[in-house]
Design brief:
Distance between the termini: 29 Å
Oligomer: single chain
Largest sheet: 8 strands, parallel
Strand content: 15-25%
Shape: globular
Helix content: 25-40%
Structural class: alpha/beta
């Protein structure tokens, strides 16, 4: 359950600006009009294979922050600490009635980047624990200076737990990204080596946050047809995608959980299209890539698109049935049987009083009863989670219908940004889709000052273009958002609950999940509650893990298979 630290000593409310650094839960968004009072030390807990973080609030009015390198010492190799300064987005139109205009923290920029002294000075501090790290307590002191003045040191410790999270997300997911949008956002030619290198950096950033991507370079591999077969040149495709699919990109061995079929315009007949899909499927099999290959059919099909979706589905299935067809739609009799991965929006799963924001509302179990047995059920967020126009609707009931949902918007509380992992566990969905992570790059606006799209601040954009002009230096780089950190933490929440269930304590895991999110719109916003639940789940996991290890040791001692 991600970065809530667990900074066990944190969680704050209002007070005067602190004279010394204050440690604050990452589930508090520090805004100019409310300086949180936190703790004088950071105490985090993390599983092996997990990243945990906290926020350090420094005195106001600072233009330059420096921090001495910190390695936490303990029973194993030292743990390195990374830090970024939080940059603010000035929201002009709230995403809905629960949003608010004004500065909101979101972009995580290098400490060396130019700062705005009118905004709070908040440093996001993160520790990522290798999977084989020795459990135990690791500690040190965080030393920072503000505009050249040394600040009091912050004691910093991490309790590394004995249990381990998998490097690759257990919940399949697919978030969109595009080389062409990235190139435009950075002012580069899409076919330049620099843009292609930057695409890899963006994809790597997603993978580091347990997120898989569709789109990527966008261009399909070259193909020609011989005797009814598709002869595909995989050279460029493999150079781009193999590191994400074979686990070689990160030291952890993390891989994309999914990958999309890139349709080719060179296929002019149904038979050629089917042959091309068959070649795609065979290539993944030959490579031994475990990622789920899928075909993304017409997005959010209208009634007039139904024949197209049915034709797409038939062509893909004629390739042998190894590539599921993903359709973004609520339950719809007209599309019955066309989807192998049915993907409604989040609000289609939770009945709610007032104006309806989905034409067919049914929980996951009910959806499954109305689908063929092997069909998977995913979900995704859209403007149905915050309203598609922005601002507070004049109709209070309509505003309520679009409020309180799990949300990836900048001007919504951090627990709403993070809740999808807990909800995925509790609901039993099979995966998550998100349409884009760099959508605003492809517009004419300055992404650093305006992320308002589809009625929300940040809808479809989870990065900022880190250009030399913006950050200084000479290198282009992706700048991740606080929201992407919260999404990562939500996926780690999912892993905690899933692991606890695997170890035989599913009833406790389900109760814990319900304490945080009773439904898609009944989500605790109290950082203290999230932290308390994490502590309790961690304690149960430690106990169950120790019991499982003892059983395994007993089996080995008696000569059985562990």
């Amino acid at each position: 359950m991600g970065v809530v630290g667990w900074a066990w000593a944190v969680s704050a409310v209002l007070s005067a600006a602190p004279a010394a650094p204050q440690v604050v839960s990452p589930l508090v968004k520090v805004r100019p009009d409310a300086t949180p009072k936190g703790a004088g030390q950071a105490r985090l807990s993390a599983a092996r294979g997990e990243c945990e973080a906290t926020q350090v609030v420094l005195p106001k009015g600072v233009t330059r922050v420096t921090m001495k390198p910190l390695a936490l010492k303990g029973p194993g190799a030292p743990l390195t600490v990374d830090a970024w300064r939080e940059a603010y987005l000035d929201v002009k139109t709230p995403s809905n009635g629960q949003g608010q205009a004004g500065p909101w923290p979101d972009a995580l920029v290098p400490l060396s980047a130019p700062a705005n002294p009118r905004h709070p000075t908040v440093v996001y501090v993160e520790v990522c624990v290798p999977a084989k790290q020795a459990p135990g307590t690791y500690s040190g002191s965080l030393s920072a200076s503000a505009d050249g003045k040394e600040l009091p040191e912050v004691p910093f410790s991490v309790e590394v737990q004995p249990f381990e999270l998998p490097a690759t997300s257990s919940l399949p997911n697919s978030f969109g990204i595009s080389l062409y949008s990235i190139a435009k956002g950075h002012g580069l030619a899409a076919d330049s080596p620099e843009a292609k290198s930057l695409l890899r950096a963006y994809g790597k950033a997603l993978l580091e946050h347990r997120v898989s991507a569709h789109g990527m370079g966008m261009d399909p591999p070259g193909v020609k047809y011989q005797d009814g077969r598709a002869v595909v040149d995989w050279t460029a495709y493999d150079a781009e995608m193999a590191p994400f699919l074979d686990g070689s990109l990160l030291p952890s061995g993390a891989r994309f959980t999914t990958s999309d079929v890139r349709d080719s315009k060179k296929a002019s007949t149904d038979a050629e299209k089917t042959a091309y899909y068959r070649a795609f499927q065979k290539h993944f099999e030959d490579k031994g890539w475990p990622a789920q290959l899928f075909f993304y059919a017409k997005d959010e099909p209208k009634p007039e698109d139904v024949p197209l979706v049915k034709a797409q589905s038939k062509r893909v299935r004629d390739a042998g049935g190894g590539i599921p067809v993903l359709v973004t739609s609520p339950l719809d009799a007209a599309l019955q049987g066309s989807a192998d991965i049915l993907t409604p929006t989040l609000n289609c799963f939770y009945p709610r009083e007032g104006p309806q924001t989905c034409r067919t509302v049914a929980n996951t179990a009910s959806v499954r009863t109305r689908l063929p047995p092997r069909t998977k059920v995913w979900w995704y967020q859209s403007c149905n989670s915050h309203g598609c126009t922005g601002g507070t609707p004049p109709d209070a009931k309509l505003d309520q219908a679009y409020s309180d949902w799990a949300s990836y918007m900048v001007d919504h509380p951090a627990p709403l940004n993070r809740a999808m992992g807990v909800l995925a566990y509790a609901s039993g969905v099979d995966g998550e889709l998100y349409f884009d992570t760099v959508f605003a790059y492809n517009t004419k606006k300055d992404v650093w000052t305006d992320l308002f799209e589809f009625g929300g601040n940040g809808d479809g954009t989870l990065f900022y273009p880190g250009t030399p002009a913006k950050l200084g230096g000479s290198e282009h780089q992706p700048v991740v958002s606080l929201r992407l950190k919260h999404i990562r933490d939500g996926l780690e929440d999912y892993e905690y609950l899933r692991l606890l269930t695997q170890l035989g304590d599913g009833a406790f895991a389900r109760t814990a999940a319900k304490r945080l999110a009773k439904s898609g719109y009944e989500i605790s916003r109290d950082p203290g509650e999230w932290e308390a639940v994490r502590r309790e789940v961690t304690a149960r996991l430690v106990k169950q893990w120790a019991s499982e290890q003892a059983k395994g040791s007993g089996r080995r001692t008696s000569g059985g298979t562990p």
